[in-house]
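[step 3/7] fold_predict: job queued, chain A
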Amino acid sequence: MDRLISRWASPALVVIVLVGVAATARQTGQVVGIVNLQIIMTQTPGYKEALATFEAEFGAAQQDLQAMVQQRDSLIAEYERASIVLTPTGRQEKQTEIQQLEVRIEQRAQDLQNRQAERQRELVSPLEQRAQAVIEGIRAERNLGIIFDVASMQGIAAVDPQLDLTPIVVQRLQQSQN
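[step 4/7] structure written:
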């Protein structure tokens, strides 16, 4: 029961906040709009190139990490096959070798993850800023009080499709590229 409550508590809170914000916006004569930032970003000029750059820069590193994982798996399988005939010292040496490789894998994975996060920010941040500027411009132009990103919010049960500004944002971003 507690898990059921905790599973629905966060989305319910989001809905309550959204309903309150939307009601306040409507009472003050402001209108609410929505966008889907996932769609906007994937259709923003330059996004596909940024994604290709990211994949090209980190593809080899991912393969190296995967090779290390396969090496560890092979060592474990070898250890399990040979453990019966190994001396206690031999077993300890194999266990130490496996543990050291696991530590190197964890360090390499953490380093790769940090470098990927930084590079992703470098590649995507200018695109996000451009999209945000277009969204802000549309918000001001249409005198909207709030624009919600439906891609990042849980708990939205229904939205009037006429409030969706995603196609307009995508169109303007693509026009600005020309």
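[step 5/7] annotate
The radius of gyration is 25 Å.
The CA atoms of residues 28 and 145 lie 9 Å apart.
exit 0
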